[in-house]
Every structure is written in structure tokens, then in C-alpha cells.
Task: structure prediction
Amino acid sequence: MVLRLWRALGVPAQAVQAYLDLVSRAPSPSLVPHASLSGVADPFASLPAGTVLVPGLSTTRLFVTRFPCVKPADGRLLPVVNAKPPSMTQEQWEWLQQLPFGLIIFSVRGDRPLPEICGSGDLDGDLYFACWHEELVLSHVRPREPPPNPRPTLRASQAPAPAPRTSTPAPRLDLASAYNHMASRETLHGNRLVGRLFRAWEGLVAQRAAGMDDPDALLLADAYLQALTSAKHGGDIGLPPHLRAMVALPPLSAEDDLDWRHGLRAQR
Result:
């Protein structure tokens, strides 16, 4: 996915191949110029808006995305903080610096969450792909505008008043409904659809001259992301008729049905 995203963002094919050669020749995984980093929020709310901090890494900027990165707007170039921000105490800065490599600390300042524009991510355990090779990757990347903010930015005077406190207990999570959904044959069928949508998207991106920017590829990307969510939580998947034919699923086979029944009994 990342290689296709790089190509969509302007990285030449020769540079992508040179990067793959570099990685294959690396004598140790620790010398590869990319990593999967666990996203966390700045605990001191002191990093400047739009920036990140990666303890244990010395670089000025990063290419950052999150899997699945199926849209051109999923990749970002983010500046890396390498010196103590004025609003951060020395003690806080030193504490952050002693953290082990493996984290990407996102600024919490700004109009919208920074992880949201890195492949629609969040900070509930998501891993982020980060690359710091300037010559072969970062110097070529031309990021797209992020998608519109789904939450309008309000001034303090426009913010709605907080809801009054009530003594009504919070609704209980309906675990039975969640279990029934995850164990249903329809969900199994939906999981197969996830794979078919991805393969259709992958094939279209490879075949069409516009690649990831092809209108049909963008529609399949949306449907694929919807299918990932639907498989867990339910919901409809929007896809026009001419693309539905590409991902039409055959009925579940007797073997699939047997696997489903065995899995259901094992869960119980």
C-alpha cells in the first residue's frame, strides 16, 4: 500500500525501487529508514500544532501514514520537534527524551486531531508507518490537501453550552447484540467482501493510468473502508452498480458454512 501511495504522491518509480534495494541490503532492521510507531498524544500539550516528536530518532521531518492507506490524501509530511518548545519545561522535555524508540507523539494543538489526517487514524492503539529517508522519499512527496474537517471549528463564543448533569445512568453496552453480529453468517460473508473490495481496488490502481486518483479507485477505496467498519459494527456499503459487479460474492459454500458452525461452537 505504501509504495502505491508514494507513487501517487509523486515519488518516481526509480526512487521507489532504489528505496526497496536499500532496505533489502540493510545489514540490520535497525538501519532501515522506516518503522511502525505507536501513536500517542503529547501528554503536556506543548508541541506546536502540526508537529510530532519521535524519541530516539534524529530527523527534521517524517512521511507518516496509517494502514490501510488507500487514498492519496492518507500520507502526510510532518515536521519533527528536535528542541524543547518554549511552553515545555526542561523536566518535561527530558522525560520525553528518555522514552524508548517506538512512539510517535502527536501534538494536540490545532483545529483538528493530527492523526485524523494521517490515514484517518486515532490514538487508541493505532500504529503509524513513518519513513525518514529524505533523498529517495521525502524530497519527492507532494502531499494532497487533507479531507475536510468533519467537525466544524467553533470560536469559544460559538461553542454550545455544556449539557446539564443528570442522574440518568449511562446505557449498558449490549454485548449480546455485538456477539450475535460478529458470529453471524452475514458477518462472515462481509469479511469475504473486504478482501474482494481490496483486490478490486488493487487491480484498478495497477491498470488505470490515474492510479489511486482514478474515480473508480476512489469509490472502491471508500467501499473498502466502509466494509472494514461494517464487518465489526454493521452498516451499509455504498458502491455504484458498475463496480458492484466487480466484487459480487458467490454464495457461501458448504465448507464455509461448516467452518462458520465450528467457529460458533468454539466461541460458546
Summary: The two ends are 37 Å apart (CA to CA). Residues 185-207 form the longest helix (23 residues). The first strand starts at residue 34 and ends at 41.
